[in-house]
Design a protein that fits this description.
137 residues; alpha/beta; Glutaredoxin; 6-stranded mixed sheet
């Protein structure tokens, strides 16, 4: 079975490497990871931002895959974690690690794993995904 290659508008991700098998953006130590994450959030219907190798990112991704959505996963290193956490909320939390993983749907922050699960259990996740254009059914 072949996987679809995500649409990128012909742009090459300069500071990130895209793994085509899992659609994961892994950010290098370049300092501009926050700008690339912001660009991914604006261009993709569903984006998951989390630490590299985090098990909660895997859980979020599996939940979204179960709903029929193939999210873009942005994995940040420990060095870029504070910059990525500043994207999550207007106010930086005391512990930047507590803000990740973060799920963006349609360019808007849904929340972390706990908020995503609450929205899913309430039956509100599918309508949000449809409105963002991530689901067609």
């Amino acid at each position: 079975m072949q996987q679809a290659i995500p649409y990128g508008g012909g742009r090459v991700w300069s500071t990130a490497t895209l793994d085509r098998t899992s659609e994961t953006l892994a950010f290098k130590k370049s300092g501009s990871g926050s700008g690339e994450i912001r660009k991914a959030v604006e261009e993709s219907p569903v984006v998951v931002v989390g630490r590299s190798g985090c098990c909660m990112v895997h859980v979020v991704r599996r939940l979204l895959l179960g709903q029929g959505v193939n999210p873009v996963v942005c994995e940040v290193s420990d060095d870029d974690e504070a910059a990525a956490a500043s994207l999550v909320a207007g106010s930086m939390p005391e512990d930047p690690a507590a803000a990740l993983p973060a799920v963006f749907v349609g360019g808007r922050l849904v929340g972390g794993l706990d908020r995503l699960m609450a929205v899913h259990i309430a039956g509100e996740l599918v309508p949000i995904l449809k409105q963002a254009g991530a689901l067609w059914l």
